[in-house]
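Q: How would the C-alpha cells look for this protein?
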Amino acid sequence: MAFKIAANHGLATLRVGVRLERDGLYALAELVSYAGGSLAVVDGWKLDSHDLGMPARLTPDWQPSRQLPSPMVGALAQAIDRIELARGLPLWLHLVKPYGFLGAVDWEAALVPSLDRPLLRLPDFLERPRENRAVLDVALVCSEPVSEPRLNPAAVVDTIARAALAGSQRPHTTVHVFCDEKHVDAIRARCAGEPRIAVHDPEGARVHGVQKRGGVGGSELLELRSPWLLWMRDSMKGRALDAVHFVGHGFIADQKPAIALAESPLSNHDRRDARYVGVGELAAFLMQTGAWSAVFSSPEHNYSEAGLRLLADTLAQTRPGPVLYQRLHPDSGQDLEELYRFLYAPGASPVPRQREWFAYCQPAIVMGQETKPADTPWLEGSAVDLNAALFSYSPAPALTAAAFTPLRRRTRRAGAAQPSDPAAAAPSPPPELPSWVSAAQRYVEQATQQLQRDVRRSDERAATVGGLAEPSPAAEEIERTLRKLQSIVASAATTAATRDAKGTP
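A: Here is the predicted structure in C-alpha cell form.
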C-alpha cells in the first residue's frame, strides 16, 4: 500500500529494494516522483553490501552504516533538484518488502546533511489509526539490566517525560512511568510537583513472577510472557494507552531484533544475560492496550543499536501507526519535545530538524502534504470508520444494513450514496476510552488494512491479464465479520457510557 500512499499525496520517494544477480544480492535505490499521481523513475543506483556496510549475518555488535557512496548521494541531490521538490518538503524512504536488514541502515544520517531536507519513512498502511486527539496517554518504560551498560534511568526518564509533556498539544496528556524498583524513589523525587507524571509501583508486577532466560520468542497467539508488559497492562486498570515509549538496550538473537529488559521490575540480579521482548510480543502488547504509536530511545553505549533500530523498523511494518526511533544525546530533551509536537499534533505540522532519529508516519501529518485526491475508494466506508465517533466525540451515523455491504461491492457502484441515520448518532464518549474499545479498534484497523491490501493485489493480478477480479467470498465474509465486531463494540461502549453516567455499577 506504500505505492498507493505515495501516489495519493504526490510524494517524491527514494525506493529501495533487494535484487538478485549472478554475483549475489544488491540494493537498487531509485528516486521516484509521484507528482500528479503518476509514477516516474528519475534515476537509480546499485548499492552492494560493501556500499551499505552490511554484514553477511547480523550480530548484536554490528554498527549500522551512517554513510553511502558520495557519488550516489551527490547524484541523488541533483536528481531532486531536477524534479523541483519544494524546499522543506521531505524525501520519503520507501523500503520495498522483503528488504531484509536494510531497515537498520542509518539512511537519515547518510542523506539528510547533504540533501538539506528531512527523510521520512513511508508506512505500508493507508491511513493513520483512529485516535482521540484531545488525549495522549504515554507509557514510558525504562529498564537497566545489570548485565548491560548503565543508563542513568532517573535523569533519562525525567528528561523524556518533561519533553513529552512540553511537546504535546493535547489538553489531557499523562506520562505513566514504569521502571526498575531500584530507581522508583529517585524518579519520584525528580518528578514531584508534576501531576501529569504518574510513577507506577513495581509491586504490582510481583504476581507475574520472573521471566526465564531464553532467546527472542514470537507471539503469534497474542500472548504476553514478559512480566514488564503484563504489569504495565494491568496497571492501566482498563484505561487505554496512546503511545508506548521504550528506553533500553537493543539485542539480536537468531537474526531477530529485541529490546533488553531486567528479568522483572522487582528482580534485576542476572549479570550474565538480560530478558528480551521481540516484535511479536510488542505488537500484541500494543494491541491489547489500545496503543496506536511507539517510540524507541537508544541510550549511549547501546549494547546493540542495530537490534533496537531493526526492532523499531520491523514493528512499523507490522501494524498501523507512527513509530519513532531516536538516539539519546545531550540535546535529546529539545529534540523529543519537537518530535512529540510533530507526531501528536492535532493537525499537519512542519517536520522538525532531523538529527539522530527516524520516523514512520503518514504524509497527512506533514504540512504541505496533508491533502489527498478525492478518489480514494480503498478508504471509503471501511470497517475502520464505523466507530469513529468513539474517538472524535463527534456524532457518527449508526450502523445500518447498508453498513454491512462489502467494500468491493459498494465502491464499484460509482456515485452510490452511503445511507446514514443521523438521529441514531452515538453519544459523546468519556475523556478516556477503556482499553478494550481501543484494542478492538486496533485489531479492526490491522485486519481491515490487510484485507484491503489483499484485495488490491488481486485486482493488480487480474489487471495484468486484462481482466477484472471478482469479489472473493472469503474476503467479503471477513469484512462482514469485522463490521459486526465494530457493531458489538459500539453497542457495548454505549451501554458502558450510559451506565457510568448514571453512576450504576
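The longest helix spans residues 435-464.

Confidence is low (pLDDT under 50) at residues 373-380, 393-430.

Upvote if useful.
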